[in-house]
Amino acid sequence: MVAEEAHRVREKGASGVLNGIEESIPVAVKELIAGGVAGGIAKTAVAPLERVKILFQTRRADFRGIGLFGSFQKIVRTEGVLGLFRGNGASVARIVPYAALHFMAYEQYRRWIILGFPDISRGPVLDLVSGSIAGGTAVLCTYPLDLVRTRLAYQVIKPSTTKFVGLSSSEHVYHGIQDCLKKIYRKNGIRGLYVGVGPSLYGIFPYSGLKFYFYEEMKAHVPEEHKKDIVVKLACGSVAGLLGQTITYPLDVVRRQMQVQALSRSSEAASKGTFETLGVIFREQGWRQLFSGLSINYLKVVPSVAIGFTVYDVMKLWLKVPARDEPSMKASAEERKSHVSSLHSG
Length: 346
Prior knowledge:
Blueprint: H1 2-24, H2 27-45, H3 47-57, H4 67-79, H5 88-116, H6 124-154, E1 156-158, E2 163-165, H7 177-192, H8 197-220, H9 230-259, H10 274-285, H11 294-318, H12 326-345
Helix pairs in contact: 2-5, 2-11, 3-11, 5-6, 5-12, 6-8, 8-9, 9-10, 9-11
Family: Belongs to the mitochondrial carrier (TC 2.A.29) family.
Membrane topology: Multi-pass membrane protein
Pfam family, one: Mito_carr
């Protein structure tokens, strides 16, 4: 009995310490952690599909017309199984801060809008605006790593000979994230690290906003007793990602082609703007190229977004993040109280 009581006391003490740590972590930091973990897990789960999608979008000659499974076989034959994950290190290095910033900024912008406009409806329009601004913020902060991820995924390497296939010169052989960042910066400076950011921003504002809009709108129609059901969250996240990606997909193709222009053997590798590149793709490659890899994207985006939203919600529960409007309502109430007291004292 004494031993059991001592064990219970120890457990209670440990639980108290953990609760104290959890309570001391600011809500924004908890949301950063939840978003980062969600993004990293989701991205790694679909890395092979993302690699093939990039190769299709950038029209690598040796991957044209062989299909998804043919591409998988070619990559494994040429680079081994790890080739399916080429560039995923840069992808995770980007997606962890990107997803962390994206989710946290979404919640933060949402609070600021509620505080600034207390009478605003808590409906899907608020989610659309907050999600759009959050997406733009996250893109600007992490874009260079997205560029690196594309360039690394574009390279096809034969491990036995360390031969890089399809590149214009040895100058464009990249040996990892740091090497790629250094070479791009050395050649084109900061501007070179943001090649293709235009279509990213044009695409992320509607995509990010629509993704949160669809997700929250669908969750709002779920019966209260099923709202915490993981299967329901997976379904809502899947449909949200599918709808958002379809609407903005052509801009993703434009972005990828801009990111690898410098690696092209053709004389047309000179830097082009977003709409110029869009026009070139439409005229020279046909409108279908603007949707190249979309079917792969459907296979990728459904599990990716679904896993991302689900892990994020699970992490928020685990970290005991308060209900989404709770901090806003508390802060708003405190602000109003302070305003009233200052009026009285004046």
